[in-house]
Amino acid sequence: MAKTELSKLEWLAKAQAYCARAEHCAADVRRKFYEWGLQDAETADFIEENLYSNNFLNDRRFCEAYVHDKVAYQSWGRLKIQASLRALQLPESEIRAALENIDETAYFDNLRKLIRARKNDSEDKRLRFLLQRGFTYEEIKNM
Q: Residues 79, 100: one domain?
C-alpha cells in the first residue's frame, strides 16, 4: 500500500507509535509527517489534535524532559536550552516553567567541570566556549 493511501486512523496509529517510543514535540511530529509523505494538512491537524488530547504530546512534559537531558547529558546552559526550545515553537510559559525546575547543583557542577576541562585555554577562549554552551556571563564569573 502506498503511503498516500493510508487512512487517517492508520496515520494516527503510526504517529501514536512514534510518540510512544520517546518524548516528542509537535514540531518533531510534523517533521516526521513530512518524512513519511503525509501531505494532507487536514489529516495532519487531526492527528496532532488527537495526540494532544490523548496525552501522546504534552508540551510541559517535553520541555521538562528536554531541559533535564540537555543539562544532564550535554552540559548546556540555560540560554542555549531556551533558544533551542523556542526554535521548536513551544509555549514560552512551558519553557520558563521547565527552566525554573533545573537542578541547580547539577547545573553548576557541569559549569565547574567545563571550566576545569578548559583550564589550559586562555581566559578569553574559555569564556567564549562557556558562553556558546549557553551559560550567562554572570554564572561564569561567579565560579
A: yes
Q: Nearest to residue 79, comparing CAs of 27, 141, 139?
A: 139
Structural domains of the chain, count: 2
Distance in angstroms (rounded) separating the CA atoms of residues 122 and 44:
51
The three cell numbers of residue 30 are 510534523
Q: What would the pLDDT profile of 48-76 be if each residue is shown by its tens digit?
A: 999 999 999 999 999 999 999 999 999 99
How many whole angstroms from its chain centre is CA 28? Answer: 10
Decide: 98 and 66 in contact? Cβ < 8 Å: yes
In angstroms, the Cα distances linking 5 to 8, 12, 19 are: 10, 13, 22
Cell of 97: 516553567
Domain region containing 30: 3-57
Residue ending a domain, among 57, 73, 89, is 57
pLDDT in tens, 64-115: 999 999 999 999 999 999 999 999 999 999 999 999 999 999 999 999 999 9
Query: C-alpha cell of 23?
Result: 518524548
Task: Give dist(CA 72, CA 43) in Å, integer.
Answer: 37
Q: Is residue 84 within a helix (H) or strand (E), and if so which, with residue range?
A: helix 78-87
